[in-house]
């Protein structure tokens, strides 16, 4: 099963099921992750900075393309509510702008 490692959450490892979004995988392990629009792809608050394994992520969704075209989503970022992990592993980190105040982040 593919695995997402969140570097600045103490290298937290989350298994991602087939067809499951990264956000759903995080939530299934009771990990708080910012998602202001409720995981509907209507904002960019759930984004993740991808450090490794971009090639293992599913194709960009229509929402992600729209935000990229509007310069609200960088080439190394994906929306966790839209993105799946098709095969292989990926490593990412929470952007400074969307860190939650009650969590402890590592550098």
TrEMBL record:
CC cofactor: [2Fe-2S] cluster
Presence of keyword Iron: yes
Keyword set includes Glycoprotein: no
Listed CDD domains: fer2
Keywords from the UniProt entry: 2Fe-2S, Iron, Iron-sulfur, Metal-binding
Matches recorded under PROSITE patterns: 2FE2S_FER_2 (PS51085)
Domain 2Fe-2S ferredoxin-type residue range list: 2-98
Similarity field: Belongs to the adrenodoxin/putidaredoxin family.
PANTHER family registered for this protein in UniProt: FERREDOXIN-2, MITOCHONDRIAL (PTHR23426:SF65), FERREDOXIN/ADRENODOXIN (PTHR23426)
Protein's recorded name: 2Fe-2S iron-sulfur cluster-binding protein
């Amino acid at each position: 099963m593919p695995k997402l490692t969140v570097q600045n959450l103490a290298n937290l490892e989350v298994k991602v099921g087939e067809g499951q979004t990264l956000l759903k995988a995080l939530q299934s392990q009771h990990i708080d992750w910012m998602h202001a629009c409720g995981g509907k792809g209507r904002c960019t608050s759930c984004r993740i900075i991808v450090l490794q394994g971009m090639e293992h992520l599913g194709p960009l969704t229509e929402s992600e393309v729209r935000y990229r075209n509007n310069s609200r989503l960088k080439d190394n970022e994906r929306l966790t509510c839209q993105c799946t992990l098709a095969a292989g592993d990926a490593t990412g980190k929470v952007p400074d702008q969307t860190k939650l105040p009650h969590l402890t982040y590592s550098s």
